[in-house]
Amino acid sequence: MGSRKRIKAESMKEARKNIAFAKLNNCPTSPRKMRLIADLIRGMDADRALSELKLNPKEASNRMEKLLLSALANWEAKNEGKKMDESNLICL
Hints:
The protein is mainly alpha-helical. Helix content is 64%, strand content 0%.
């Protein structure tokens, strides 16, 4: 690997440490229904988004809540010394 590639790969690796990903497989909900719920919580704090999903009567909100909890667990695994309350996590 060349030096430019290695430097770029290391910088991308450092940038990914602050972002937590989650993926929901085998979800029998249509993308349009999931997008409605995703647009509802996009840009919110993680705690507020969880409370919105719990109170929403739509079926897709249960699956989105599961996905958000998984992303929060992944973030905690990457950042062991930090707390979620102090970090101001935002749903993107």
